[in-house]
Amino acid sequence: MSLRIIDEYGYPATDKQVVFIDDLFAKRDTATLTDTMRHTLTTLSEMIERAAETDKPIIIQMSRRDASYYIDTLLRCRPINSKKTDELNATLGQLPVSRYALPRKNDPDVWDFFELVERKNGRRFMNRLLGSPGDWRRDYLCAELQIAAARAIALDPRASAVAYAKRHRRCAVCDAPLSHPTSIEFSMGPTCRKRFL
């Protein structure tokens, strides 16, 4: 891992604090957190993931004081029930890693977009995507919402991935623009289609 933690006042958080925050974020029910804090912790989690995949240092600006605050806040969140964790892992485990689209139950003309992510350690989670391709903001979902979204997608994963591709004209798996006639016809490239066979 290649993290570089800085702080303008010279008291940066330690590597152990940052890794502990990421671990707590994965194992606690964060439904009670503010949207701002969830967004901050999701961004931190993504940066740690990038740091594990590159030799270039990933710079994180966080003071020891802020790190302590995040740790205290996350420790107050209840742990995700191990039964719930098993259910989440089983539900997410049956889906291909991809982006998906689901129509809203109360308004089928409005679509929500999701991204199933798998880390190198095998841990999977489902984010809701807000914005548009190239400028997505990832919204962390609590375990219950991840399970609900995954169950709805699992009814027909390929149809949900195709719905994403049709709305954004990009492959749901690799995010490449769909330009070849065959890829446009199937809403997915030939390699990415194999995930859904």
TrEMBL record:
<protein>
    <submittedName>
        <fullName>Uncharacterized protein</fullName>
    </submittedName>
</protein>
<dbReference type="Pfam" id="PF19474">
    <property type="entry name" value="DUF6011"/>
</dbReference>
<dbReference type="InterPro" id="IPR046053">
    <property type="entry name" value="DUF6011"/>
</dbReference>
